[in-house]
Design a protein that fits this description.
10 helices; flat
């Protein structure tokens, strides 16, 4: 298989990975994270049906279906990544780019770890640190697949400035931290801990229990569905997510502005930069709307999807900024 075919397959897998990320957010936000109390099956079955009182109740509420659709999609993604890795190794033998092989091998290991995290999410009853690790793993899979699709940096008559590549790498890191903060907010059910905006309970810097709010491993006998932290800890979590959003918007906004001001930039770099800027603005609007509208499902899921798309745009910026003259 040629490198072009590997990149095309990676594009298809990127679309599936994006669907898995969005489905994961939908499952979490609709309270279906424990719709199936076991793993990998649901009430002991790989294909759910109407038999059984407990299973019938879960199916009737829709939670079991939502959870299993997410698992089926994730399983398909895992199989697709194995095929992609095999295709990348085969293409390498035909003098294709070696970088895609290394990334594909990393992806196989990451998907195996993601499967373990999926099981732990259930067995640990939605332990927040496991939920966040699972979210970050999903974003990493998405980003690596997209990077394989992009291929090697091409030559350009107008190479970008030397500072842009490390600056975009910092931007990706900042966004990753913000995604983790968002996942921590969601996993601890703190999205509405501050019901007003831009203040929080009328204060610009609210009192909150930051030590408890950011204790990584929590204890709960019956699980973490609905959250177990007190209100002051949830306020601390929510407020830090807002601070992270402010830092993210400021840095990425400045980065995009500086990239577009450099004069006659590469066309594809300009497209990626403008896309990142638009997605950044949309993400900010969606984040504020989540508070003002009291977390409507569609807006909350779109906020998760927007974070994934913004990550892809930043990875594209980083890739295009490595174009050689």
């Amino acid at each position: 298989m040629r490198e072009r075919s590997v990149r095309r397959l990676a594009l298809w897998m990127t679309g599936l990975a994006f669907a898995v990320v969005v489905l994961g957010a939908w499952v979490r936000l609709t309270g279906a994270g424990l719709g199936c109390p076991d793993w990998p099956g649901c009430y002991g079955r790989m294909v759910i049906g109407p038999e059984g009182t407990s299973l019938a109740a879960a199916i009737e509420g829709g939670k079991a279906w939502r959870e299993m659709v997410h698992r089926y999609a994730a399983g398909m993604l895992g199989i697709g990544i194995l095929i992609l890795a095999a295709a990348a190794v085969h293409s390498r033998r035909q003098r294709a780019e070696g970088g895609s092989v290394a990334l594909a091998v990393v992806l196989v290991g990451l998907v195996a770890f993601q499967a373990a995290l999926g099981a732990w999410t259930v067995t640990q009853r939605l332990q927040p640190v496991v939920v966040v690790a699972h979210l970050l793993g999903g974003m990493a899979v998405l980003g690596l697949l997209w990077r394989i699709h992009l291929g090697a940096p091409a030559t350009s008559a107008r190479p970008p400035p030397a500072w842009l590549r490390p600056a975009t790498a910092v931007g990706v890191a900042i966004l990753a931290v913000q995604i983790a903060l968002g996942g921590w907010t969601s996993a601890n059910y703190a999205a509405l801990a501050c019901p007003d905006f831009p203040t929080c309970h009328g204060d610009w810097w609210p009192a909150g229990n930051y030590a408890t709010g950011f204790r990584l491993w929590q204890e709960a006998r019956t699980g973490f569905e609905g959250g177990v932290l007190a209100g002051d800890a949830r306020i601390a979590i929510h407020f830090m997510h807002r601070i992270g959003a402010l830092v993210t918007v400021a840095y990425l906004g400045a980065l995009c502005g500086a990239s577009m001001r450099r004069g006659r930039p590469d066309r594809r770099l300009m497209v990626a930069t403008r896309s990142a800027l638009v997605l950044l603005i949309v993400q900010a609007v969606l984040g504020v709307s989540n508070v003002w509208l009291q977390l409507p499902l569609g807006v909350a899921v779109a906020h998760n999807a927007g974070a994934a798309l913004l990550l892809l745009a930043l990875i594209t910026m980083h890739h295009r900024s490595g174009r050689r003259s």
